[in-house]
Design goal:
By secondary structure, the chain is an alpha+beta fold.
Length: 84
């Protein structure tokens, strides 16, 4: 088991951007976290387990849990016909 931070997780191959990872972690209470970051203390992850979880549950830049509260707070994408 390799323990690392959010930045370490983001550096692994195939991981989304750090802001996307943060939203993903917030939306998935079942995300494998060793210790949640708060008040200046960094998150700690088992990097192998966290990377595996992301690869299994992340597709095409979208969270796979459509009922996640965080998704309701994100702006809707513009349709191609409405773009200016």
């Amino acid at each position: 088991m390799t323990i690392g931070s959010l930045a370490d997780l983001g550096k692994l191959p195939g991981m989304p951007s750090l802001p996307s990872l943060q939203r993903f972690i917030a939306a998935r209470p079942d995300f494998p976290v060793i210790e949640r970051g708060r008040y200046g203390k960094a998150y700690q992850f088992d990097l192998d387990a966290a990377a595996k979880f992301v690869r299994e549950h992340w597709r095409d830049g979208r969270l796979l849990d459509p009922d996640a509260e965080i998704l309701r707070q994100l702006p809707l994408p513009m349709e191609a016909g409405n773009a200016r």
